[in-house]
Design goal:
By secondary structure, this protein is an alpha/beta fold. It contains ten helices and nine strands. The structure holds adenosine monophosphate.
Length: about 280
Amino acid sequence: MDIINQPLQMQQRALAEKRAGRTISFVPTMGYLHAGHLSLLEEGRRRGDVLVLSIFVNPTQFGQGEDFEDYPRDLERDQALAAQAGVDIIFAPGAREMYPSGYATYVDVEGITETLCGASRPGHFRGVTTVVTKLFTIVQPDVAIFGEKDFQQLAVIRRMTADLNLPVKIVGMPIYREVDGLAMSSRNVYLTPDQRRQALVLSQSLHEARTMVASGHNDAAMIIRQVQIRISAQPDARVDYVRICHCLTLEDQSVVDENSVLLLAVFVGQTRLIDNAVLVAAQ
Ligand code: AMP
């Protein structure tokens, strides 16, 4: 496994692999790998000849007062996990390599970036779309794998890839969960044991909503209210948003149907957690 820090070196290696007829699959991350990331790498391993993992805590997608400085980092541990997962190349640039002095170019996707996490975290998706565009240009992937855990991010990346005619196939992977249901996230390490227990309210609320839908309820406002009440019963939980949206447009829905996804963002203490689920079970 090779570790590359310089964008130009990564790009030259990627172009050489392609000239040699090999396909590249790519998993972009901010590191501090967990089993959710490993499920993406496993899919990437299957889908390409050369598997590239990027590890970059991207400053432009963090807002003022967010956790950029505190975001967990452990490159040594990540390297060991990546090697086990069959990664061929880790691309781990520094912020100065990605955004050298004088850097002035940003990619902006309109519309679907303005709701949900985009409304709560202004500028977040501009940072995401900018860094993903740069990473695609540097890594030259044929296939890129993203998690449905960041449901809106995946929708935004699909929109951007289509709009800019980027020659990359985008693959979404299901949310990987702890055995008790908590969606895996690098940020879960911020939770105290008591907050960790309270954080189960996210996956439990999703489960309850799916049960309501299965038993015939389809009034989105009523389901949202139930979920809000359930979350607010946890002493350290504060709802950022609870929304039922169309899975492609991310527009709010008033009546639940097979396209409905329930999206949650909840602060548990200082930690902002997100989770989501489609509401109608696949046949
Ligand atoms: P991050 O390192 O948090 O930026 O995530 C990198 C990639 O891993 C993104 O595509 C995430 O959606 C995905 N990911 C994060 N957590 C999970 C999870 N629990 N299950 C599946 N994919 C995940």
